[in-house]
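HUMAN: Ready with one sample?

ASSISTANT:
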Amino acid sequence: MAFPKNFLWGGAIAAHQAEGAYLEGGKSLATCDVIHGGKGRIAEILDPAAIKTNIAKQEGYFPEHIAVDFYHHYKEDIALFAEMGFKVFRTSISWARIFPNGDGDPNEAGLAFYDSMFDECAKHGIEPLVTLSHWEMPVSLTTKYNGWASREIIPLFERYARTVLTRYKNKVRYWLTFNEINMTLHMPFMGAGVIVDNPAQKKQLSCQAAHNMLVASALSVKACHEISPAAKIGSMVAAMTAYPYSCKPEDTWEKTRMERENYYLTDVQARGSYPPFVLKLLEKDGVKLDITADDKKLFAENIVDFVSFSYYSSSAVTTDPAIAGDKGTGNIFGGIKNPHLKSSDWGWQIDPLGLRIALNFLYDRYQKPLFIVENGLGAVDKVEPDGSVNDDYRIEYLREHVKAMKAAIEEDAVELWGYTTWGCIDIVSASTGEMSKRYGFIYVDQDNDGKGTLRRSKKKSFGWYKKVIESNGEVL
């Protein structure tokens, strides 16, 4: 049997994409609550004027305000996860629920909500895998400090981390620090609550924000190891498998360059220092990081226990201007369409072998246990007259990716702890804010305008994944 006996099968969501109840239970407005939905969402996230307007004046529909109301449905939803046989459930804690203004006293109502959620997981024998920060922070920290661009955020986050690590030390054994930390370099507001007023300052602000997050991540690792020595805490990166479009050396160098820049933040978390090339690159780009001797010592002494990552698709890269314009859609990293691959409804190229490549790349690079914490297919699901959803396309996507995982474990000796499919229940899409971009095994009756009954129902993939888990990956 390829998969270890204790392999952690499950699914993943994020607090802001599922919970809703955005001002209930003492929660404050969070950065994720001020982004509209729809195809232009990424453009809005990158537009400082739009974000400032949204913060100052809430007008229109904001998907995270309702999401799928997991806040009130979590018992029902966790029972469905248990029916599938989940061993692990990845979610996040909303910082804005625990410290509504980022400082002051912790909000007991918020702490109690997660207590109840984790108790529900325990009742069903499900291990929580909890992300401390998943693209969310109190808006007040953006308006006061410009988010993670300021080192003032670091002690506030450390206090938040120590609060929840202490509170849940007997309920949570697996933690992640920051979700897809490398995305901060591409989308500073979504990733770090940073508003970039001057485009010329984007790299400086993004890199400093990412550095400050790295310091906070190391402090969280330190806190976790002190508070709960038996727990494991990991990093999380958006993995990118890229192929040279041709065998031209320049295309291969472009692939190498993109990979190095994509993973250098994880290098700090898993190796304990910045790679030399990064400091040279930042110097060349005129970026001056505020790095202290204490930061360097902290990095070296507090590396993560494991490396987790998301993987959805791959891309191709080229330096040829004649074909460089044929970009794949939905790919924030850049890159162009690979003519050898099919694409999803949103233009993400489907590449199971790319997952095996990513697993080998990351294991070779870090020699640490790996955990796939996001993988899935965003698609338009059709509800049949009898209420069923025959999502064979999702089953095919996941089946081929599980096969890739199996090969990496069995043939390549990669140490893989677990697998949580993304959006195990339909949730708001982070990239577009739509409900029509569905990932889940469980259909939620909710549309792009926040209308619907919120009724839950099982898709065809629900039964398929149940059999995968029951057989520990042998029946696909």
